Give the backbone structure.
Amino acid sequence: MISGEDLKSMRVNAGFTQKEMADKLGISRETISNYELDVGQPKMRDFLKWLIVCKIDTRSVVNQIDAIQNQVDKNVKSEQGNKKKLK
């Protein structure tokens, strides 16, 4: 989804320590460290909160997620149509 380096950059640019970010997200400082070291990915809810806390515009992210979901839906429908044709 997003690199740990990008998460760290957002946090540092917003002026938060790992502990402060953890407190704002309601997770442990160790979890923040793991995300920034690319050991796991934040849940979507935590990722969106991260963006909000760092004052990152979430509209572009949500629009990208919508576009991906629409493409997935289109692909699923196409595959279902192809399976019906094979029967």
